[in-house]
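Notes continue from the previous slide.

Worked example: a multi-chain complex. Inputs as given:
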Amino acid sequence: MDMGKDTVRRNNVTVTGNPEGRTVVLAHGFGCDQNMWRLTVPALSDDYRVVLFDYVGSGRSDPSAFSEQRYASLDGYAQDVVDVCEALDLTDAVFVGHSVSAMTGVLAAARVPERIGALVMIGPSPRYIDDEGYRGGFSAADIDELLDSLESNYLGWSAVMAPVIMGNPERPELGDELKNSFCATDPDMARVFARTTFLSDSRDDLKTVSVPTLVLECTQDVIAPREVGAFVHRSIPGSTLVTLEATGHCPHLSAPEATNAAIRSFLAALR
Amino acid sequence: MSPLKIVTRDATTGPVLEVVGDLDFAHAPALRERISTLVVPPGRRLVLDLGGLEFCDSSGITALIAAHSHAQAARAEVVLASVPANTLRILQMVGLDQVFTVQPDSDAATRT
Amino acid sequence: MMCSAGERPDPYDAEDGGVPPAAFASLLEDSVEELYENAPCGYLSTLMDGTVAKINATLLTWLGLRREDVVGRMRFSDLLSVGGKLYHETHFAPLLRMQGEISGIALEMRQAGGGRISVLVSSVVKRGTTGEPLLIRTTVFDASDRRAYEEELLRGRRVADEARRQAEADRARLQQALAVLQQSLLPDTLPPIPGVEAATHYHTASSDQVGGDFYDVFPVDGKRFGFFLGDVCGKGPEAAAVTSLTRYTLRAAAVHDPDPVAALTTLNKVLHQRYTGSGDPRFCTAVFGTLEPDAATGRVGVHLGSGGHPPALVVRADGTVDPLHTPGGLLVGVLPTARFVTTTAVLAPGDTLVLHTDGLTEARTGSDRTSLFGEDALRDFLAAHAGRSPGDLIGALITLLDGFGDGLDDDTALLALGVPADRTTPDAR
């Protein structure tokens, strides 16, 4: 029980929605935190019990729990998912993962199959870097550029943001003052997450998926192009592919109605 | 801890150093330094007046031994004057009361 | 939409000291449209999906693009470098969606010639009357200089981080080396002595300094065992060198002649020869002794000598504590010839011989840390623990040392050699 409480605090776990409903776990991707689901939660909370959390190193998770070694591979992030599932003693939950979290969900489902009964993958990509016979959309040099971009934006943030991220009670005014606080995180931890995300190769793990799976892709997504969506759909037999009329990598923000409708109809069909 | 003060004066017998304050790890090197530059003519006497000594540990004892070696090399002698009771006890414990001539005060120590 | 500057109320009126007519005329030529197109920053309006709807001349010039190739044809993210695109998709766009505005984000834009331009981007979502998002307005500032400056700062920080890591690693390595050196000055294990239990403890005051305390216990011949414990004056690597010399000199001397005076005299000669005239006199205090167990009586004879060291203490089973005085024993290494004094004692079952260095008795006590623990308090403490085994006694002394906290600022060595109490006759004296 104590370990469960620790996980709840560590991963800033929030449980909302209908306590009687089937549990839906919403997992954010690289860049932001559980706030990303702001427009998704209202569409689910009447019928489903909704679990939100922040990966260690993101949002308002406990920064002291971060370990570069653990989070140097997606297994570390998948363990966060497993820990959350175990802390809440979930059975047969639906895991909704955005971006890299779609793959984290695949890894977690393989470890605790009894706890995760279905997957929704929003903008998934099992590998971002091009490979022989595979187009992920990026070169290794592109990923280095992203790491540079992170660095240049965190320069201004790190010192100012630290008190907010750490939840410094002595300077509550900072929380209101800083407009860009949602996606703020410790720059070193963000760099680890970025590196782990964009250098990962989970193509083989897709074959382990044996639960009902919905793949959601956008018509225009720089990060997860349609070829990648097709690859994921092809690699998971029996999966459903839905292409949303949306641009960008975050359809749950840019096209919330269509995204919510697709998730809801998938959930309804599960019963 | 009080700082170390060393006052040097000349008596007919030779130099007299009044040592006031603490002779510890931090301050004893200052006394050693002073003594190493001190000229004691052969046959004369170096008097260390310890009446103002407040604290003395093994570093202080080392400084006193350095004074002894310095004087001996110059074929002079060393006399300790006004040694506080606890320092005298330490000197006795380490057997140095046999090595140093100890006088009650610097008047007695500078008497020819 | 457009209004000529001339229609505005004239801020300068006809007051004295106003703007000269020629300069004022040039102000009049300005227009909002002109300002939009040629402002010293880039302007950009896009649809919610990022498609560029309007872009000003300044930004087109910076990017080396023609308006007709951009408007309606490219999205904002198409203008960015790949790293910028990724950052845009993972941070910028979601934040803008959630907050309606975002400011001061550093991105890189691509130039037609293949170059890059570092920019600072701020965006705000313009909403319709019912709050529905209509378009995104974006300003772009040339941040090349700021970026270069930031890169300097980042490089500086990386160098400083690296230096700090290096310093921490160096310190850890030094501490490890010192710990190994310290261990080499002490025996790994003590030899079993028939009828005697031995226990030791070494307290290191600082992990950054090698201390100068030492001890050892070793077999001498078929029936006797040698032991010593002492304190080299000073700290640090020089003191450690003296400690090492001292330890091996005493061990070697004991092989030749285990008599305490002979061993201490040899050590005195070696230290004096080595360090006199070096300008850095080095010496130590030491107790050296031998134990001779008598299997017939269960008693153990002690023969020890001391050079300037605090007296060893015999803790009797009945609670008396006998100091083994050796008056006149001189600091070792001070004079070319030194006098050492020996004494003897007999340990009966339940008695323990305790040797210590003065770190213990010179620990500062009291709330203001001005008084010393002292010899008398040590004797009382040992008396209160009489009858305990050497291991228990050392354990109690370790607790005592721990209790001194920061009042204990010197290394401390402890050695206890005792005869276990005779269990068949608990009252044996």
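Summary box: Strands of chain B lie at 5-11, 14-23, 45-56, 77-81, 101-103. Chains B and A do not touch (no CB pair under 8 Å).
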